Automatic annotation (TrEMBL), chain A:
UniProt keyword list: Mitochondrion, Oxidoreductase, Transit peptide
Mitochondrion in keyword set: yes
CDD domains linked: TPP_PYR_E1-PDHc-beta_like
A Pfam family that the UniProt record links to this protein: Transketolase_C
Subunit description: Heterotetramer of alpha and beta chains.
Name of the protein: 3-methyl-2-oxobutanoate dehydrogenase (2-methylpropanoyl-transferring)
Listed EC numbers: 1.2.4.4
Natural source organism: Brassica napus
Keyword Heme attached: no
Any one GO BP annotation for this protein: branched-chain amino acid catabolic process
Record field: catalytic activity: N(6)-[(R)-lipoyl]-L-lysyl-[protein] + 3-methyl-2-oxobutanoate + H(+) = N(6)-[(R)-S(8)-2-methylpropanoyldihydrolipoyl]-L-lysyl-[protein] + CO2
Domain Transketolase-like pyrimidine-binding: residue ranges: 37-212
Automatic annotation (TrEMBL), chain B:
Cofactor annotation: thiamine diphosphate
InterPro entries: Alpha-ketoacid_DH_E1_comp, DH_E1, THDP-binding
Name of the protein this chain belongs to: 3-methyl-2-oxobutanoate dehydrogenase (2-methylpropanoyl-transferring)
Main localisation: mitochondrion
Localization, UniProt: Mitochondrion matrix
Dehydrogenase E1 component domain location: 132-427
Length: 362, 467
């Protein structure tokens, strides 16, 4: 309950914001103007810039016209016209299929799936068409201009169908990229990179942070590189890897661990496919311990891929088994959400993070 | 007597438009009013004396606002005005009569009296017929090559040569094609050579697809033909997006997508049709209703009057055509294309035909249908012989031209196969390229691992793939 209340009652101190995230700016301005923005406004800004800078770009999906159910597309239809920013019929396979066709003709199609829980009708189009479009044609064709945006993750009261984290399904598909931002400033830069990347990208936005997260976001056009993980907190005793909203929880766990004298290195993966193994590997070789945390159910979650890879590469440097602190293997529950979630105390009590006397088998 | 209309094109096309069964609203409602089940005058104009009769019978609902005398009130629901009726009417599940099928040539290739069609020149007609023959011969020779073990797989288009060639002939080279997998004739018409077909089937280094897919999964960006994927009907919504792009870019072109009777059951068909109508996309949906989806006959596929009636459900103008009549296919596609581009609308064309061949070389269709049925379609309704009769009746073809063509194609095909077979396979690095625009680190690492494995155990790997 406390964690639920705290989610809604305070604006978040975002991980990495105090330290300043490393970011490549596309414009070399001496003094960049920043504005305090929440996540949906930062995404909105990115979409405005994307449509402004490429006249053959389109934004569409269910309810996108009036601004979208999460307000991410506010003002776009009025500014760019209903031919470029429009509502679609309620049909995810149609939305993505249509987007693939647009992208195949050299346009940028930024499609919105209203909530990631509803992305599955489009799975065939994503896996069998988008991901293979370039490869199967011998590079005669591609749909690199396609970007699929979907709000994902727990929101406190979302239940089965407004809380899912389906990233693992997509990380298993060669040919697409999977990107998950942790904050407003990151989201704007990563979304612009995703839109402009010459490969189809699935971009999951942590819906819990749409209003909750507020950050100084530069107003200009900038991009944050894909497939580059970021160390947002340096440490020497243990590496923690996560993405999206979970990083906030993990940073709290790091602060708690620090009181016990444990120095934590926190990494934001940002791009899950293709993921930056090198940064995680270098960190674990330094610290000797790894803890991965994600909201998605633990079995078959993306944490398993990270764990297996790090085991292969860092086995002799590991001082403890790799821990995964994740959602449970149940459909996302409503009343039981606080018990389901990978909270900071679950992270703190995991074998990697706690001192030997406090270890629980989790 | 055949009415070969020679009037000016616009007048001609206007007449054509109103007479072809395209189902424009006024045409359809006239059509339906004549077909009420009870015979006699349409009972919508009169109130039946027996209320029970009215309640118990289902009636064909008319689509015009002819309810003036039953009820003069209307109501504005979201979506527009509807008038009310105090009578309980269910729209029938089907019309009394099936939607008629447009054809120009009879079964023997004779032009039907009063037939309307878009004229074709001698050059076009001869190319159409020659390409139909070429397609059939190409299919014969590739099929045999598969049977001999020289090809891993093949799928023929027997019986559907007119759909393939005539539709292609009616399009412009700028129209973008989203095929299913039984439309290589469209590529052939546009200039894909027998050698290029063979290269893809043999997966050699000259295959534009770089050896990644099974035979018949052709694609050609220079000919605006998107690469085949085996998944059914997934190309349909893609075609709608592409059509929208053409419209937004102001191109004088449309998107054209093909699918079978089976494909019309897929969710992507419904998604695409609805999107096309809402987005006002210039796209042609050409359904090759050939009676079979592998072993599944159309009676197990849908319970509607084929596919043509589904157009109306989405607000899409539709036509049913004899798919084995090259002239009818040509005219229908020609007209549909004009409407699609000029009016920014999708068109549905249901081409009735028959899949004479097996589904593919992995299928033996005599296990689920009679050899007699296949034979009948191959002889009595053969698209090649019907069109040949018409072409010859104009003095544009002869037995000599036929045998010259056939011997030339046969020689070309055998040479194409010979060359394709001995051309080396694509380099191993093409397993890893094009997954993304640039290979990411994990793929570069995996390539190294595979190369190491090959070095240690060369005997476990095919020797015809250059490293």
């Amino acid at each position: 309950m406390a964690s639920l209340l705290s989610r809604f009652c305070r604006k978040l101190a975002l991980p990495g914001s105090a330290h300043g995230s490393r970011m490549t700016s596309t414009t070399a301005c001496g003094s960049e103007t920043v504005k305090s923005l929440n996540l949906y406004s930062a995404i909105n800004q990115a979409l405005h810039i994307a449509l402004e800078t490429d006249p053959r770009s389109y934004v569409f999906g269910e309810d996108v016209g009036f601004g979208g159910v999460f307000r991410c597309t506010t003002g776009l239809a009025e500014r760019f016209g209903k031919n470029r920013v429009f509502n679609t019929p309620l049909c995810e396979q149609g939305i993505v299929g249509f987007g693939i066709g647009l992208a195949a003709m050299g346009n940028r199609a930024v499609v919105e799936i209203q909530v990631a829980d509803y992305i599955y009708p489009a799975f065939d189009q994503i896996v069998n068409e988008a991901a293979k479009f370039r490869y199967r044609s011998g590079n005669q064709f591609n749909c690199g201009g396609l970007t699929i945006r979907a709000p994902y993750g727990a929101v406190g009261h979302g239940g089965h169908y407004h809380s899912q984290s389906p990233e693992a399904f997509f990380c298993h598909v060669p040919g697409i990229k999977v990107v998950i931002p942790r904050s407003p400033r990151e989201a704007k830069g990563l979304l612009l990179s995703s839109i402009r990347d010459p490969n189809p990208v699935v971009f999951f936005e942590p819906k819990w942070l749409y209003r909750q997260a507020v950050e100084e976001v530069p107003e200009h056009d900038y991009m944050i590189p894909l497939s580059q993980a970021e160390i947002i907190r340096e440490g020497s005793d243990i590496t923690l890897v996560g993405w999206g909203a979970q990083l906030t929880v993990m940073e709290q766990a790091c602060l708690d661990a620090e009181k016990e004298g444990i120095s934590c290195e926190l990494i934001d993966l940002k791009t899950l496919l293709p993921w930056d193994k090198e940064t995680v590997e270098a960190s674990v070789k330094k610290t000797g311990r790894l803890l991965i945390s994600h909201e998605a159910p633990i079995t078959g979650g993306f944490g398993a891929e990270i764990s297996a890879t790090i085991l292969e590469r860092c086995f002799l440097k590991l001082e403890a088994p790799v821990s995964r602190v994740c959602g449970l293997d149940t459909p996302f529950p409503l009343v039981f959400e606080p018990f389901y979630m990978p909270t900071k105390n679950k992270a703190s009590s995991s074998s990697s993070l706690s001192s030997p006397s406090k270890t629980h088998i989790f | 007597m055949a009415q070969h209309l020679k009037s000016s094109k616009s007048t001609f096309l206007n007449v054509l438009r109103h007479s072809l069964a395209f189902g424009s609203p006024s045409h359809a409602s006239r059509h339906l009013r004549q077909k009420l089940p009870h015979g006699g005058p349409p009972s919508i104009k009169k109130v039946s004396p027996n209320p029970l009769t009215r309640l118990c019978n289902t009636m064909v609902d008319t689509l015009s606002s002819s309810h003036e005398d039953t009820n003069s009130q209307v109501m504005d629901f979201p979506g527009g005005k509807v008038s009310f009726t105090p009578e309980i009417h269910f729209i029938s599940e089907s019309n009394e009569e099936r939607v008629p099928c447009y054809r120009v040539l009879d079964d023997n290739g004779q032009q039907l009296p009063n037939s309307q069609f878009v004229p074709v020149s001698k050059e076009i007609a001869v190319k159409m017929y020659s390409d139909m023959v070429t397609l059939q011969m190409m299919d014969n020779i590739f099929y045999e090559a598969q049977r001999q073990g020289r090809l891993s797989f093949y799928a023929t288009a027997y019986g559907e040569e007119a759909i393939n060639i005539a539709s292609a002939a009616a399009l412009s080279p700028d129209d973008v094609i989203f095929p299913q997998y039984r439309e290589p004739g469209v590529l052939l018409w546009r200039g894909f050579t027998l050698q290029e077909f063979a290269n893809q089937c043999f997966g050699n280094k000259s295959d534009y697809g770089k050896g990644r897919q099974m035979p018949v999964h052709y694609g050609s960006n220079k000919l605006n033909y998107f690469t085949v994927s085996a998944t059914i009907a997934t190309q349909l919504p893609n075609a709608v997006g592409a059509a929208y792009s053409l419209k937004m870019d102001g191109k004088d072109a449309c998107a054209v997508t093909f699918f079978g009777d089976g494909g019309s059951s897929e969710g992507d068909f419904h998604a695409a049709m609805n999107f096309a109508a809402v987005m006002e996309a210039p796209v042609l949906f050409i359904c090759r209703n050939n009676g079979w989806a592998i072993s599944t006959p159309t009676s197990d596929q849908f319970r509607s009057d084929g596919v043509v009636v589904k157009g109306r459900a989405y607000g899409i103008r539709s036509i049913r055509v004899d798919g084995n009549d090259a002239l009818a296919m040509y005219s229908a596609v020609h007209e549909a294309r004009e409407m699609a581009i000029r009016e920014h609308r999708p068109i549905l064309i249901e081409a009735l035909t028959y899949r004479v061949g097996h589904h593919s070389t992995s299928d033996d269709s005599t296990r689920y249908r009679s050899a007699d049925e296949i034979e009948w379609w191959n002889k009595a309704r053969n698209p090649l012989s019907r069109f040949r009769t018409w072409v010859e009746s104009n003095g544009w073809w002869s037995d000599e031209a036929e045998s010259d063509l056939r011997s030339r194609i046969k020689k070309e095909m055998l040479e194409a196969i010979r060359v394709a077979e001995k051309t080396e396979k694509p380099n191993l690095n093409h397993m890893f390229s094009d997954v993304y625009d640039v290979p990411p680190l994990n793929l570069r690492e995996q390539e190294l691992l595979v190369r190491q494995a090959i070095k240690s155990h060369p005997q476990d790997y095919p020797s015809d793939v250059p490293l």
